[in-house]
Amino acid sequence: MAYQLLKGKKGIIFGALDDKSLAWRTALRCHEEGASLLLTNAPVALRMGEINKLAIEVNAPLIGADVTNMDDLNKLFTGAMDHFGGKIDFILHSVGMSVNMRKGKPYTGLDYGFNQKTLDISATSLHRVLQTAYEMDAISKWGSVVAYSYIAAQRVFPDYNEMADAKALLESVARSFGYYYGIKNKVRVNTISQSPTKTTAGSGVKGFDGFQAYAEKMSPLGNASADDCAGFCAVLFSDLTRMVTMQNLFHDGGFSFTGVTEAVVREFEKNSDIPVK
Predict the structure, then answer these.
(1) Into how many domains does the chain fold?
(2) Which CATH number goes with the domain that contains 174?
(3) Is residue 277 part of a domain?
(4) Beta carbons of 201 and 160 less than 8 angstroms apart
(5) Are the beta carbons of 111 and 161 closer than 8 angstroms?
């Protein structure tokens, strides 16, 4: 059900890859809620072709931009304001990649060149996006920026590798820039820590299926779906959350504040003869 929460609002969606991605589902929901959109991704992602389907479905133009390139970001925001005829109202940052993970490097044996790329793409990119928008005065008063994080920024998840560090940095950028942008133009900046969601990127994490099943048992409400997350984003982009900023918001069915559940205890009791390593 749509509520026209974003009627008349204009936004940029970063990072939609395919119909499993959080950014893709969020773009669809924002469109349903009445928003006008512009889609962007890295040039290589645009060449893959999938995002063109989304652009047609939500009637949005596509502008390629490398989030680590300031010239690309300047062109993106200039193009967006030209297209919309003025400032934008919201931005979704859905960008992340662990180069060491892709290359099979463990956390205890990182390639630091790869690590620098991971941090630049997955975290510093949010600073670049916000700095560009800030300097160009591209976001309307009471605008909203949301970036996707993960609870591994606060807790250890061994197979999440260097992305945990990247998410911690991402959340720090959101807090710090949220302060300055709030003072400048009442723009709010938040991050969402979503349940483990079977996106194309998420499925590449070692042991993902097992952890997703564990999180389901550890969450009183169960895991939040990509479409659930899209709805939450729409609310954060709307005028209903104008005083929420600089927060990391857990959207995980209660996983983040649950010590243990009966379902998990029963599972261990069934296997109590197995030593824990």
Answers:
(1) 1
(2) 3.40.50.720
(3) no
(4) no
(5) no
Which of 169, 206, 195, 210 lies closest to 256 in space, CA to CA? 195
> pLDDT of 228-238, one tens digit each?
999 999 999 99
pTM above 0.90, yes or no: yes
Q: Which tokens sit at 75?
A: 């062109």
- Domain assignment of residue 226, given as a range: 10-270
| 52 inside domain | yes
Sheet holding 188-194, edge to edge: 62-64, 36-41, 10-14, 88-93, 139-149, 188-194, 248-251
Within a 13 Å sphere around the CA of 19, how many CA atoms are in the beta-carbon half? 4
Q: Residue 132: pLDDT band by 50, 70, 90 thresholds?
A: very high
Per-chain mean pLDDT for the chain: 93
Name the phi and psi angles at 198, rounded to 5. -80, 70
What confidence tens digit (pLDDT) does each residue in 207-229 have?
Answer: 678 878 889 999 999 999 999 99
